[in-house]
Amino acid sequence: MTRDQIIEEYLEELSSKNPVPGGGGASALAGALGTSLGMMVASLTIGKKTYAAVEDEVIGLNEHLSTLREVFLRLADKDEEVFLPLSRGYAMPRRTEEEKALRGQYMERALNDAVLVPLSVMETAVGAFDTLLQLSRVGSKIAISDAGVAASYLLTAAVGASMNVEINVKSMKDEEKKAWLSGKCARYLERAETLYRETMDTVRERID
Question: How far apart are CA 208 and CA 204, in angstroms?
Fold first, then answer.
């Protein structure tokens, strides 16, 4: 599991020719890093007299980010789980019409499963952005630059996951399902990019 690996070990696996972990898991891990940095901002705010008026709010934001970090870590592992059946599908024989039909049915199911994970990463990133934006407005100014770094990681999670959605959707045959999944991906990405800009504007205003 991703959470059980030391950083160096994970990076070695990521840089190898092994199929997993790959970009999907790395995108989810970027989300976990973003939420962790957001939690650091909250931790540096809680207990400070200057921010006593917003302490309860920040505690709630911190708890939400903690929950989302766990979601990101689970999705990093789930991405590996759904990729392996997909890789097996690409190796299935297709010499006869029957084999082609069986492979096509298998691949459609595997591609659908493979798309749902990065979509969940994108949805989780949007939720984390909502929380991080609130935190960037009320959190400690001494850690405000870290809120900006957190936003960058969350955007990486969303953009990276969107590419995994796009490449898998491209191979699907069900045009209606493809359109629905692509539309959902585009909406998540647009929302993430909007929240990223709003968060960074807030961060830069508070730095100034």
Answer: 6
Would the pTM of this model clear 0.85, i.e. be above it?
yes
Length of the chain: 208
Question: What torsion, rounded to 10 degrees, do the Cα atoms 184, 1, 35, 67 define?
Answer: 80
> Which residue type occupies 152?
S
**20-207, what's its fold?**
Four Helix Bundle (Hemerythrin (Met), subunit A) (1.20.120)
Query: What type of residue is 81?
Result: E
Indicate the residue type of 198.
E
> What is the rounded distance in angstroms from the CA atom of residue 72 to the CA atom of residue 107?
26
Cα three-residue angle 11-147-184, rounded to 5 degrees: 75
Q: What is the dihedral of CA 123, 127, 128, 131, to 10 degrees?
A: 170
Domain boundaries, the chain: 20-207
Per-residue pLDDT tens digits for 93-143: 888 888 778 887 888 888 988 999 999 999 999 999 999 999 999 999 999
